[in-house]
Predict the structure.
Amino acid sequence: MIDPFGRAITYLRVSVTDRCDFRCVYCMSEDMEFLPKSDLLSLEEMERLCAAFIRQGVTRLRLTGGEPLVRRDVMRLIERLGARLGDGLDELTLTTNGSQLARHAAGLVRAGMRRINVSIDTLDAEKFAAITRWGKLPAVLDGVMAAKQAGLAVKINAVALRGVNEHEFDGMIAFCGQHGFDLCLIETMPLGETGIDRNEHYLPLSTVRAGLARNWTLTPSAYATGGPARYFDIAETGRRLGLITPLTHNFCEGCNRVRLTCTGTLYMCLGQDDAADLRTPLRRSSDDSALDAAIMSAIARKPKGHDFIIDRDHARPALTRHMSVTGG
Ligand code: SAM
Ligand code: SF4
């Protein structure tokens, strides 16, 4: 699948649920309303959609959410998708908040998963509780250690928040170095009302990097995962630091991905509203030709990029859709 700007679309992110057991301040409001369960695709329908994308050239799948591991029986989907590894699919991964990871880590490896991303914004338990509203850091750290034990490569994702975790990244680099994890810092993106002012928390990673360079030797790395992060090798730990800078550095040029929601809506860009309904062609017939055509016509409309801005004049979200809908 080649989009109008010549980009090959080989990566699909699938949000398996919009629900979550946390309420991170930058992601959701405390009284977030979720879709009625009857609106969700079944796991079998999700598998069929994923299979259609694999048939059309997607080689990497990432499951996300909401929190993917809170969806009932999600391991069944993971096992079914894992069975496609080596048969058109090169990689199956997961982005998780880690709350349920301790009991699922070994199963993920059995299903063929090799690496996962775990979101942890701070290693301070009190601050973690404040950021996630409902999360408990010890359970997440147990999950991360279970993942390491099971043999999964772990990348820790942290959203950089001014006045919240901005002085913790040295400690997080040291923690990740000690355990053999990579660390990826993400700028906040203006998606959905969350009840907080994003101006207040927006922290450009150019500033963070300059601060980190005082304590760590950061060398630009040739490493790339096909994602929007730019990587640096950290000489002192032998691990990598990734920076995802949607606002200070346009990350759209090399975009290779599209995003599927748990209701079968395909978003061609995280930062634009245009979407394609794949549920209707999926349900209309057991023959996949209409579904394949709907996917091709959606890719033909993939926009060039997002228009995120955060500054004093743009305090409102760029999009009303929350990150938990499209899965980040
Ligand atoms: N619940 C899982 C988790 O937290 O890893 C998966 C879904 S979550 C929406 C995916 C990623 O998006 C997380 O790393 C989260 O920190 C990030 N995220 C959520 N809202 C964001 C925002 N407004 N700006 C930047 N990143 C955001
Ligand atoms: Fe849940 Fe992930 Fe959003 Fe936090 S960032 S509220 S863990 S979906």
User: Anything to note?
Assistant: The chain is about 30% helix and 20% strand. Residues 20, 26-27, 64-65, 67, 95-97, 119, 157, 159, 186, 188-189, 191, 323-324, 327-328 surround S-adenosylmethionine (ligand 1) (CB under 6 Å). The CA atoms of residues 162 and 206 lie 13 Å apart. The chain has a mean pLDDT of 91.
